[in-house]
Design goal:
This protein is an alpha+beta fold. The chain has 7 helices and 9 strands, in the order βαββαββαββααβαβα. The strands form 4 sheets. It has a 3-stranded mixed β-sheet with strand order 8-1-9. A two-stranded antiparallel sheet has the order 2-3. Strands 4-5 form a two-stranded antiparallel sheet. Helix 2 packs antiparallel against helix 3. The structure holds iron/sulfur cluster (SF4) (3 copies). One iron/sulfur cluster (SF4) binds next to helix 2.
């Protein structure tokens, strides 16, 4: 398995959007028409030409307030529900790089039903080009990584919030930082660490951040996204013994 992994320390993210712009530059994706939604977040959502968006939430903290940022992107799930759903329809339209573990949307995704693939993703990541019907998302900058470079977003991050490397090293780094964080912030969480290749460490309780942060962001009593993920993965786990 091991492959590569990101570790994103949200306590160090200043919301500068350098990663969002670096992604556009490396991928040569155009700017898009946007609109004011009452937040500094811009654009308001991901799209087929915005593969990474820094989500912003303003929360009250006593008499003060705090910006909570989430540099949102594909998590490159270890057992990716989007790929499992896609393989049932067009085998390997959604591929996985054996070396890095990156989950890759190919041209063949145009033959997949978009609502099924988007609905399978616990983090609401897939988007679709309206003209070509090809689906789009972060590809881990797999071309750069296979050439020994870091992803463009990681390379540009000025604060050290974003880290990238071998999975074992990143998991160890994330867990060490998590232990430090818990001393001052007992509600900090290392999100979905055993399920994904993009490890977000929160400073506060995760529900304060944008709802796409965690796979179990569903409301009380509802089928949570984590439950759906577990349901999708259980036959695979049984087959593996
Ligand atoms: Fe964009 Fe590459 Fe970062 Fe993915 S890894 S968000 S494609 S810059
Ligand atoms: Fe697929 Fe969503 Fe996981 Fe990315 S985050 S690999 S799009 S299921
Ligand atoms: Fe946060 Fe780093 Fe992205 Fe700036 S470049 S928004 S600090 S993750």
């Amino acid at each position: 398995m091991p492959g590569k992994t990101f570790f994103v320390d949200l306590s160090r993210c200043t919301g500068c959007r350098g990663c969002q712009i670096a992604c556009k530059q490396w991928k040569q994706l155009p700017a898009e028409q946007t609109r004011n939604t009452g937040s500094h977040q811009n654009p308001p959502d991901m799209s087929a030409v915005t593969l990474k968006v820094v989500r912003m939430k303003e929360v009250g903290k006593g008499d003060d307030f705090k910006w909570l940022f989430l540099p949102d992107q594909c998590r490159h799930c270890l057992d990716a529900p989007c790929k499992m759903a896609g393989d049932d329809i067009v085998k390997d339209a959604i591929a996985q790089d054996k070396e890095t573990g990156a989950i890759l949307f190919t041209e063949k995704t145009k033959d997949l039903p978009f609502d099924v693939i988007r609905g399978a993703c616990p983090y609401d990541i897939p988007r679709q080009n309206a003209k070509t019907k090809v689906m789009a998302k972060c590809d881990m900058c797999n071309d750069r990584v296979l050439a020994g470079l870091k992803p463009a977003c990681v390379k540009t991050c000025p604060t050290g919030a974003m880290n990238f490397g071998e999975r074992d090293e990143m998991v160890a780094m994330a867990k060490k930082r998590f232990e430090e964080m818990k001393k001052t912030n007992p509600k900090a969480v290392l999100v979905d660490v055993d399920q994904v290749r993009v490890l977000f460490l929160t400073e506060y309780e995760p529900r304060l951040y944008h709802g796409n942060l965690m796979a179990d962001a569903g409301g009380p009593g509802s089928y949570t996204r984590l439950a759906v993920l577990d349901k999708l993965l259980s036959p695979l786990r049984q087959a593996r013994g």
